[in-house]
Amino acid sequence: MADRIRVNPITCEAHGMCAELLPEMITLDDWGYPIVDGRPVPRELVEHARRAVKSCPKFALLIEDKRD
Amino acid sequence: MSFSLAAAGPSLAWYLTRSTGTVALLLLTVSLLLGILDVRRFATPRWPRFVVDELHRNVALLSIVFLALHIITAVLDSFTSISILDAFIPFIGSYRPFWLGLGAVSFDLLLAVSITSGLRRRIGYTAWRATHWASYACWPIALLHGFGTGSDVKATWLLGLSIICVLAVLAATLWRAFTSPAQRVRERTLAIGLVAAFSLFLVLWLPGGPLGHGWARRAGTPTSLLKHAASSSTNGSPGQ
Questions:
Q1: Residues 6+ apart with CB under 8 A from B92
Q2: Would the CB atoms of A17 and B125 count as touching at under 8 Å?
Q3: Which domain holds residue B130?
Q4: Residue A20 C-beta-side C-alpha neighbours within 13 Å
Q5: Per the domain annotation, does B231 fall within a domain?
Q6: Could you read off the pLDDT of B97-124 as tens digits, one per residue?
Q7: What are phi and psi of A58, to 5 degrees?
Q8: pLDDT-derived band of residue B80, with 50, 70 and 90 as boundaries?
Protein backbone atom coordinates (compact mmCIF):
# COMPACT_ATOMS: atom_id res chain seq x y z
CA MET A 1 0.00 0.00 0.00
CA ALA A 2 1.60 3.20 -1.17
CA ASP A 3 0.07 6.49 -2.24
CA ARG A 4 1.97 8.09 -5.05
CA ILE A 5 1.63 11.52 -6.63
CA ARG A 6 1.13 11.79 -10.34
CA VAL A 7 0.84 14.80 -12.66
CA ASN A 8 -1.45 14.77 -15.65
CA PRO A 9 0.88 16.43 -18.20
CA ILE A 10 -1.96 17.18 -20.62
CA THR A 11 -4.02 19.34 -18.26
CA CYS A 12 -1.14 20.87 -16.22
CA GLU A 13 -0.61 24.55 -17.04
CA ALA A 14 2.37 25.20 -14.77
CA HIS A 15 0.55 27.18 -12.09
CA GLY A 16 3.15 25.87 -9.63
CA MET A 17 1.05 25.95 -6.47
CA CYS A 18 1.78 22.25 -5.87
CA ALA A 19 5.50 22.97 -5.55
CA GLU A 20 4.75 25.78 -3.07
CA LEU A 21 2.61 23.50 -0.91
CA LEU A 22 4.66 20.28 -1.22
CA PRO A 23 8.28 21.32 -1.81
CA GLU A 24 9.47 18.09 -0.14
CA MET A 25 8.27 16.07 -3.12
CA ILE A 26 7.64 18.46 -6.01
CA THR A 27 10.12 20.75 -7.75
CA LEU A 28 9.58 22.86 -10.85
CA ASP A 29 11.46 22.62 -14.12
CA ASP A 30 12.74 25.66 -16.00
CA TRP A 31 9.31 26.24 -17.52
CA GLY A 32 7.46 25.97 -14.22
CA TYR A 33 6.10 22.44 -14.73
CA PRO A 34 6.23 20.10 -11.75
CA ILE A 35 8.71 17.27 -11.37
CA VAL A 36 7.48 14.72 -8.85
CA ASP A 37 10.03 12.56 -7.09
CA GLY A 38 8.16 9.23 -7.60
CA ARG A 39 8.50 7.96 -4.01
CA PRO A 40 5.50 6.91 -1.93
CA VAL A 41 3.99 9.78 0.08
CA PRO A 42 5.34 9.49 3.64
CA ARG A 43 2.72 9.52 6.38
CA GLU A 44 3.77 12.93 7.69
CA LEU A 45 3.31 14.52 4.26
CA VAL A 46 -0.10 13.05 3.42
CA GLU A 47 -2.02 16.13 4.59
CA HIS A 48 0.29 18.46 2.63
CA ALA A 49 -0.03 16.26 -0.45
CA ARG A 50 -3.82 16.40 -0.24
CA ARG A 51 -3.74 20.17 0.07
CA ALA A 52 -1.46 20.41 -2.97
CA VAL A 53 -3.84 18.19 -4.95
CA LYS A 54 -6.80 20.32 -3.88
CA SER A 55 -5.06 23.56 -4.82
CA CYS A 56 -4.37 22.63 -8.44
CA PRO A 57 -6.52 24.98 -10.57
CA LYS A 58 -6.53 22.48 -13.44
CA PHE A 59 -7.04 19.34 -11.33
CA ALA A 60 -3.84 17.99 -12.89
CA LEU A 61 -2.33 16.64 -9.67
CA LEU A 62 -3.50 13.27 -8.42
CA ILE A 63 -2.79 10.95 -5.54
CA GLU A 64 -2.87 7.40 -6.79
CA ASP A 65 -3.38 4.52 -4.43
CA LYS A 66 -1.27 1.74 -5.83
CA ARG A 67 -1.97 -1.54 -4.10
CA ASP A 68 -0.41 -3.86 -6.65
CA MET B 1 -38.70 40.16 17.60
CA SER B 2 -37.87 43.82 17.93
CA PHE B 3 -34.55 45.44 17.16
CA SER B 4 -35.75 48.94 17.89
CA LEU B 5 -33.66 51.07 20.21
CA ALA B 6 -36.37 53.68 20.43
CA ALA B 7 -39.82 53.69 18.95
CA ALA B 8 -39.28 56.82 16.87
CA GLY B 9 -35.56 56.55 16.07
CA PRO B 10 -33.79 54.37 13.54
CA SER B 11 -33.54 50.74 14.62
CA LEU B 12 -30.41 48.74 15.38
CA ALA B 13 -31.25 46.48 12.43
CA TRP B 14 -31.11 49.43 10.10
CA TYR B 15 -27.67 50.48 11.36
CA LEU B 16 -26.49 46.90 10.86
CA THR B 17 -27.89 46.79 7.32
CA ARG B 18 -25.93 49.88 6.36
CA SER B 19 -22.68 48.81 8.00
CA THR B 20 -22.72 45.23 6.72
CA GLY B 21 -23.51 46.54 3.24
CA THR B 22 -20.47 48.78 3.36
CA VAL B 23 -18.22 45.98 4.63
CA ALA B 24 -19.59 43.66 1.92
CA LEU B 25 -18.67 46.20 -0.77
CA LEU B 26 -15.13 46.36 0.62
CA LEU B 27 -14.83 42.56 0.79
CA LEU B 28 -16.23 42.09 -2.73
CA THR B 29 -13.74 44.67 -3.99
CA VAL B 30 -10.80 42.98 -2.25
CA SER B 31 -11.96 39.58 -3.52
CA LEU B 32 -12.18 40.85 -7.10
CA LEU B 33 -8.71 42.41 -6.88
CA LEU B 34 -7.28 39.19 -5.43
CA GLY B 35 -9.01 37.20 -8.18
CA ILE B 36 -7.33 39.34 -10.82
CA LEU B 37 -3.94 38.92 -9.11
CA ASP B 38 -4.64 35.19 -8.94
CA VAL B 39 -5.48 34.77 -12.61
CA ARG B 40 -2.35 36.78 -13.54
CA ARG B 41 -0.32 34.39 -11.34
CA PHE B 42 0.99 37.17 -9.13
CA ALA B 43 3.57 35.88 -6.65
CA THR B 44 6.37 37.18 -4.46
CA PRO B 45 8.41 35.27 -1.87
CA ARG B 46 6.17 36.73 0.84
CA TRP B 47 2.93 36.26 -1.13
CA PRO B 48 3.16 32.90 -2.87
CA ARG B 49 0.46 31.82 -5.34
CA PHE B 50 -1.44 29.67 -2.87
CA VAL B 51 -1.78 32.56 -0.42
CA VAL B 52 -3.38 34.83 -3.04
CA ASP B 53 -5.58 31.95 -4.20
CA GLU B 54 -6.86 30.95 -0.77
CA LEU B 55 -7.24 34.55 0.37
CA HIS B 56 -9.35 35.26 -2.73
CA ARG B 57 -11.65 32.39 -1.81
CA ASN B 58 -11.86 33.18 1.89
CA VAL B 59 -12.54 36.89 1.38
CA ALA B 60 -15.32 35.99 -1.08
CA LEU B 61 -16.84 33.57 1.44
CA LEU B 62 -16.61 36.23 4.15
CA SER B 63 -18.49 38.64 1.89
CA ILE B 64 -21.34 36.09 1.71
CA VAL B 65 -21.46 36.01 5.53
CA PHE B 66 -21.73 39.81 5.64
CA LEU B 67 -24.34 39.80 2.89
CA ALA B 68 -26.39 37.26 4.84
CA LEU B 69 -26.33 39.66 7.81
CA HIS B 70 -27.07 42.57 5.43
CA ILE B 71 -30.16 40.78 4.13
CA ILE B 72 -31.41 39.44 7.48
CA THR B 73 -31.17 42.85 9.15
CA ALA B 74 -32.85 44.56 6.18
CA VAL B 75 -35.73 42.10 6.47
CA LEU B 76 -35.95 42.50 10.27
CA ASP B 77 -35.97 46.29 10.11
CA SER B 78 -39.56 47.33 10.65
CA PHE B 79 -39.27 50.70 8.88
CA THR B 80 -39.21 49.18 5.40
CA SER B 81 -41.29 46.24 4.27
CA ILE B 82 -38.62 44.06 2.71
CA SER B 83 -39.31 40.32 2.58
CA ILE B 84 -36.72 37.57 2.43
CA LEU B 85 -37.92 36.79 -1.12
CA ASP B 86 -36.87 40.30 -2.23
CA ALA B 87 -33.28 39.31 -1.50
CA PHE B 88 -33.34 36.50 -4.03
CA ILE B 89 -36.00 37.45 -6.60
CA PRO B 90 -35.24 40.85 -8.11
CA PHE B 91 -37.70 43.70 -8.73
CA ILE B 92 -40.72 42.25 -6.88
CA GLY B 93 -40.67 44.40 -3.72
CA SER B 94 -42.46 47.62 -2.86
CA TYR B 95 -39.49 49.50 -1.37
CA ARG B 96 -37.26 50.96 -4.12
CA PRO B 97 -37.89 47.84 -6.23
CA PHE B 98 -35.34 48.57 -8.96
CA TRP B 99 -32.40 49.43 -6.69
CA LEU B 100 -33.18 46.69 -4.19
CA GLY B 101 -33.59 44.33 -7.15
CA LEU B 102 -30.04 45.09 -8.30
CA GLY B 103 -28.87 43.86 -4.91
CA ALA B 104 -30.81 40.63 -5.42
CA VAL B 105 -29.35 40.17 -8.92
CA SER B 106 -25.86 40.74 -7.58
CA PHE B 107 -26.39 38.34 -4.67
CA ASP B 108 -27.76 35.66 -7.03
CA LEU B 109 -24.70 36.05 -9.25
CA LEU B 110 -22.40 35.81 -6.23
CA LEU B 111 -24.16 32.63 -5.11
CA ALA B 112 -23.84 31.17 -8.61
CA VAL B 113 -20.12 31.97 -8.73
CA SER B 114 -19.52 30.60 -5.21
CA ILE B 115 -21.56 27.42 -5.55
CA THR B 116 -19.95 26.52 -8.88
CA SER B 117 -16.56 27.15 -7.27
CA GLY B 118 -17.44 24.71 -4.51
CA LEU B 119 -18.50 22.13 -7.09
CA ARG B 120 -15.58 22.86 -9.39
CA ARG B 121 -14.32 19.31 -9.53
CA ARG B 122 -17.75 17.95 -10.34
CA ILE B 123 -18.82 20.42 -13.02
CA GLY B 124 -15.41 20.60 -14.69
CA TYR B 125 -12.98 23.38 -15.43
CA THR B 126 -14.72 24.89 -18.48
CA ALA B 127 -18.16 25.27 -16.87
CA TRP B 128 -16.59 26.69 -13.70
CA ARG B 129 -14.52 29.17 -15.71
CA ALA B 130 -17.54 30.31 -17.73
CA THR B 131 -19.63 30.92 -14.61
CA HIS B 132 -16.79 32.72 -12.86
CA TRP B 133 -16.91 35.55 -15.45
CA ALA B 134 -20.20 36.57 -13.78
CA SER B 135 -18.03 38.14 -11.05
CA TYR B 136 -17.49 41.07 -13.40
CA ALA B 137 -21.25 41.63 -13.49
CA CYS B 138 -21.74 40.95 -9.78
CA TRP B 139 -19.43 43.72 -8.59
CA PRO B 140 -20.74 46.72 -10.60
CA ILE B 141 -24.37 45.67 -9.98
CA ALA B 142 -23.66 45.53 -6.23
CA LEU B 143 -22.07 48.98 -6.44
CA LEU B 144 -25.11 50.43 -8.26
CA HIS B 145 -27.38 48.83 -5.64
CA GLY B 146 -25.37 50.65 -2.97
CA PHE B 147 -25.48 53.97 -4.81
CA GLY B 148 -29.16 53.59 -5.66
CA THR B 149 -30.52 52.66 -2.25
CA GLY B 150 -27.68 53.27 0.22
CA SER B 151 -28.63 55.69 2.97
CA ASP B 152 -25.10 57.03 3.35
CA VAL B 153 -24.33 57.76 -0.31
CA LYS B 154 -23.98 61.48 0.35
CA ALA B 155 -21.67 60.94 3.33
CA THR B 156 -18.16 62.01 2.35
CA TRP B 157 -16.44 58.99 3.91
CA LEU B 158 -18.62 56.48 2.03
CA LEU B 159 -18.44 58.41 -1.23
CA GLY B 160 -14.64 58.50 -0.86
CA LEU B 161 -14.53 54.78 -0.05
CA SER B 162 -16.76 53.96 -3.03
CA ILE B 163 -14.61 56.04 -5.37
CA ILE B 164 -11.46 54.27 -4.13
CA CYS B 165 -13.15 50.89 -4.73
CA VAL B 166 -14.26 51.94 -8.22
CA LEU B 167 -10.81 53.23 -9.19
CA ALA B 168 -9.11 50.09 -7.84
CA VAL B 169 -11.44 47.74 -9.72
CA LEU B 170 -11.27 49.73 -12.96
CA ALA B 171 -7.46 49.89 -12.77
CA ALA B 172 -7.16 46.16 -12.02
CA THR B 173 -9.55 45.28 -14.86
CA LEU B 174 -7.56 47.42 -17.31
CA TRP B 175 -4.32 45.86 -16.04
CA ARG B 176 -5.76 42.40 -16.62
CA ALA B 177 -6.93 43.41 -20.10
CA PHE B 178 -3.57 44.87 -21.10
CA THR B 179 -1.59 41.91 -19.78
CA SER B 180 -3.73 39.38 -21.65
CA PRO B 181 -2.13 37.38 -24.49
CA ALA B 182 -1.76 39.48 -27.63
CA GLN B 183 -4.08 37.30 -29.71
CA ARG B 184 -7.08 37.93 -27.42
CA VAL B 185 -7.89 41.27 -29.01
CA ARG B 186 -11.67 40.97 -28.74
CA GLU B 187 -11.57 40.24 -25.02
CA ARG B 188 -9.28 43.22 -24.47
CA THR B 189 -11.43 45.60 -26.55
CA LEU B 190 -14.55 44.46 -24.70
CA ALA B 191 -12.91 45.02 -21.28
CA ILE B 192 -11.68 48.51 -22.19
CA GLY B 193 -15.06 49.41 -23.66
CA LEU B 194 -16.93 48.24 -20.56
CA VAL B 195 -14.55 50.10 -18.21
CA ALA B 196 -14.95 53.30 -20.24
CA ALA B 197 -18.75 52.96 -20.46
CA PHE B 198 -19.14 52.26 -16.74
CA SER B 199 -16.90 55.19 -15.73
CA LEU B 200 -18.78 57.52 -18.07
CA PHE B 201 -22.13 56.31 -16.72
CA LEU B 202 -21.08 56.93 -13.09
CA VAL B 203 -19.75 60.42 -13.87
CA LEU B 204 -22.92 61.41 -15.72
CA TRP B 205 -25.43 59.67 -13.45
CA LEU B 206 -24.21 60.25 -9.88
CA PRO B 207 -24.44 64.09 -9.63
CA GLY B 208 -28.06 64.29 -10.82
CA GLY B 209 -29.01 60.84 -9.45
CA PRO B 210 -28.25 59.65 -5.90
CA LEU B 211 -26.22 62.79 -5.14
CA GLY B 212 -28.94 65.09 -6.47
CA HIS B 213 -32.15 66.37 -4.90
CA GLY B 214 -35.16 64.21 -4.11
CA TRP B 215 -33.47 60.90 -4.91
CA ALA B 216 -35.42 59.01 -2.23
CA ARG B 217 -38.67 59.79 -4.03
CA ARG B 218 -37.28 59.14 -7.51
CA ALA B 219 -35.70 55.86 -6.36
CA GLY B 220 -39.13 54.45 -5.58
CA THR B 221 -39.50 54.86 -1.83
CA PRO B 222 -43.19 54.33 -0.91
CA THR B 223 -44.96 57.66 -0.30
CA SER B 224 -46.00 56.64 3.22
CA LEU B 225 -42.34 56.21 4.22
CA LEU B 226 -41.32 59.53 2.65
CA LYS B 227 -43.91 61.33 4.81
CA HIS B 228 -42.70 59.44 7.87
CA ALA B 229 -39.10 60.41 7.16
CA ALA B 230 -40.01 64.05 6.58
CA SER B 231 -41.89 64.27 9.88
CA SER B 232 -39.09 62.79 11.98
CA SER B 233 -36.08 64.99 12.49
CA THR B 234 -33.50 62.19 12.73
CA ASN B 235 -30.45 62.97 10.69
CA GLY B 236 -30.00 59.56 9.16
CA SER B 237 -33.49 58.52 8.16
CA PRO B 238 -33.78 56.26 5.09
CA GLY B 239 -35.58 58.93 3.17
CA GLN B 240 -32.74 61.43 3.12
A1: B85, B86, B101
A2: no
A3: 12-150+162-225
A4: 21
A5: no
A6: 999 999 999 999 999 999 999 999 999 9
A7: -105, 10
A8: confident
Q: Do A21 and B50 touch (CB under 8 A)?
A: yes
Question: How many other CB atoms sit within 10 Å of the CB of residue B110?
Answer: 23
Q: Is residue B68 part of a domain?
A: yes
**Which residues from chain B sit within 8 angstroms of residue A15, using beta carbons?**
41, 49
Structural domains present in chain A: 2-66 (3.30.70.20)
B41 in contact with A, Cβ within 8 Å:
yes
Confidence check: pLDDT of A67 > 70: no
Closest CA of chain A from B186, distance in Å: 23
- How far apart CA B143 and CA B22 sit, in angstroms, is 10
Enter the pTM of the model.
Answer: 0.90
Q: Residues A8, A13, A14, CA angle at the centre, nearest 5°?
A: 100
